[in-house]
Amino acid sequence: MSALTFEAVRKTFGSNVALEGFDLDLQQGELVTLLGPSGCGKTTGLRIAAGFERADSGKILVEGADISKMPPHKRNMGMVFQSYSLFPNLTVTGNVEYGLRTRRLDKVERERRVAEVLELVQLTALGSRYAHQLSGGQQQRVALARALAVRPRVLLLDEPLSALDAKVRTTLRDEIRRIQTEVGITTLFVTHDQEEALAISDRICVMSNGHIEQLGTPTEVYRKPATAFVARFVGTMNVLPATISGATEANVNGTRIAIPAAKGMGKGSSISLLVRPEDLMLATDGLPGTVTSITFQGASTLVGVRLDVIDQLVSIDVGQGGADTLTLGDRVGVGVNGSNAVCEPTE
Amino acid sequence: MAAISSRIKAYLGRIGPSLVLLAAAVFFIAPILSTARAAFHKVPTILLDRHTWFKKWSLEGVRRAFDEEFFWPTLALSLKLALVTVLITMALLVPTALFVHLRLPKARALVEFLTVLPYVVPPIALVAGVAAFFRPNARWFLNSDFSLAPFYVVMAMPFTYRAIDAGIKAIDVRTLVDASRSLGGSWATTLRKALLPNMASSLLSSAFLTATVVLGEFTIASSLAKNTFATFSFEYFSRDAQGGVGLALLTLLATTALLGLMTVATRSKSRKAATVTRF
After folding, report:
1. How high is the ipTM of this complex?
2. Is B24 exposed, middle or buried (0-12, 13-18, 19+ CB in 10 A)?
3. Between residues 23 and 62 of chain A, which touch chain B (CB distance below 8 Å)?
4. Residues of chain A under the 50 pLDDT cut
5. Which residue from A123, A156, A272, B134 has the least number of CB within 10 angstroms?
């Protein structure tokens, strides 16, 4: 049975449609990420699940039971917020205990659970601290512990990492995933950061303008983007102007490239061919161009090339050491592997 | 020449602010010192000289006030009124301010404007209107001493609403409410455990400001013929000038002490938060 289900949920704010025909199923123990630019409806979806917003129509089901009209405090969901949300008047222990007190658990059980979740987030030693005595990362870990202490049916994470600096963000991201797997709790995670979504999710739900663009595993979303929007939003994409020259072939300035079948686009139609940096390579017989930038990124190197004829700047992932012999201004050829390319009709 | 004038300018620039401060201090403190002399020194101003300056100082005037039959009952009534006013203010304005912040943020400017209105309506106009309505309709209301409390709630509102509003602005109400609700807190629990404790210093300021307004209010109490501490002070002054002045001085000192206490109480809270080391 699904742990959490959105069934044809619609939500408007005035004349602005935040969610439209939103269907989503979360399986038990799964981490699903709602990914999209700001204003795409992802936070609205999460707040509807939490009960902070009421859907105009449609249903929210938890383990098959309709909770659409249930107030937030009765839904038994744990939530971590984007902004620091610890109660400033309470210690770490007091914060974690909050949900246990509202459930009227006895002292022994409260102490047991507080110890359990603080150990889970590795903050056992900081129980007597107040929020202002903690770093941002620690505060979010306490918020996570507080949400988990009540043993919620679903964990809702509303951009919990976006207020943190890069290094802490990565560490805490991995920690959230570790804890989520360890506890086995169904989790809905909201973010606008595609890297975060790719790293943490079982499935990603890419959204734009209140509807789902694609729902799939991180690999599917990255390698086989369903729409041009997904292709552009997740990861980096090079845009090559091309024309369709066959059922599975495109022509980029005279060079023929094998592509996946372009549905609904006839021979001769103009398209933008969207290709990932790792699907471009340096090849002597490729499209000629000039090296304009070499960006070392640790594990890989990105080479920027301005293509001669179509005057387009492309980015090529040459892997580790692939740019060792290159210098700026070098003349190179760019080969295209079109097997994962996305065709976007041009107007 | 130019060097000298620039040095004079620099000198004036240095002592200028001190001079202004000194002038302001004299302006405020001199009348209080004169009041103190009038209250405790039994020598008419016309007879003041170096022989009489150090003689005949006494607390007699104020002591007489304490012995007055109506001193304690009127003080007790004013304190009770202050308490009732504070309670009504909290019960009305805290939920209102929270509601406006959470549900009607667009109405904030309007509500702020409405809360300032009592400041521009003269108390006498307020009391005349209210009395004209209640006298024929509900005389029992005006007969009760506590009929003053609603007036005081309205009169103190420009100050109290601002203090409460500032307290709400200082915390992230929306997130705290959502956090509490998601953890199973009902609205009542959320208010009691997550919001009010974090607004303590602003609620305290608001309560002190209300109390000072109540203790000093004369117009409405006098118009409705109530024996509050303010009306007693006025009436006593007309009978015993020196004792009355002493009483006024004591009241001034007491309310100043209240405000000082409020500053210390609210500041020590924020200092506690600020001085803790970050790890």
Report:
1. 0.83
2. exposed
3. 50-52
4. none
5. B134
Backbone angles phi, psi at B206, to 5 degrees: -60, -40
Whether residue A150 and residue B184 make contact (CB cut-off 8 A), yes or no, is yes
**Per-residue model confidence as pLDDT tens digits over A135-168:** 999 999 999 999 999 999 999 999 999 988 888 9
Contact yes or no for A271/A242 (Cβ under 8 A): yes
Q: Kind of pairing, strands A249-252 and A255-258?
A: antiparallel
Q: Compute the distance between CA of residue A155 and CA of residue A120 in angstroms, rounded to an integer.
A: 15
By Cβ distance, the residue of A77, A83, A150 closest to B175 is A83
- State which residue of chain B sits closest to A74, comparing Cα positions: B184
Q: Which tokens is A170 given?
A: 């990565």
Whether the model pTM is above 0.90: no
User: How far is it, in rounded angstroms, from Cα A261 to Cα A263?
Assistant: 6
Q: How far is CA B21 from CA A99, A259, B14, B263, in A?
A: 53, 81, 12, 21
Question: What distance in Å separates the CA atoms of residue B129 and residue B140, rounded to the nearest whole number?
Answer: 17
CA B114 remoteness from chain centre: 20
Q: What is the pLDDT of residues B157-166, one digit of tens each?
A: 998 999 999 9
Q: Whole-angstrom Cα distance, residue B215 to residue B256?
A: 12
CA distance A291 to A329: 5
Helical H segments across B103-240, by residue range:
108-120, 123-137, 139-143, 148-169, 173-182, 187-189, 200-216, 219-223, 229-239
Tell me the one-letter amino acid at A131. Answer: A
* pLDDT interval class at B258 (50, 70, 90): confident
